[in-house]
Amino acid sequence: MKSIMTFRAARFALPMLAVLSLGACEGMSDSQRRIGTGAAGGAAIGGIAGSFSGNAGWGALIGAGAGAAGGYLFDQSQRAQDRAFQQGVREGYVRGRTGM
């Protein structure tokens, strides 16, 4: 009977947790969102991998660090692409105005 009550509580709590955690990203910048997503994904994968060796906490901690670093690198790549695009737009506008 106790396992049925635990399952019912989890069935309600997990979707509620997911909804609340998604709402936390509302006021974040793109950089914060990318780094946070990397950290959360890394923590999840690290926790799963660490659970096989009996150290889920350490796996999650290491995974969060690695995921945050990956999110940061991805953010820097996206920023560089955005800067290059904006520079191309500016140069195209100037060339169009001067006829060159």
UniProtKB/TrEMBL annotation:
PROSITE patterns: PROKAR_LIPOPROTEIN. Pfam families: Gly-zipper_Omp. Residues 37-74 form the Glycine zipper domain. Residues 1-24 form the signal peptide. Keywords: Signal. This is Glycine zipper domain-containing protein. It comes from Roseomonas acroporae.
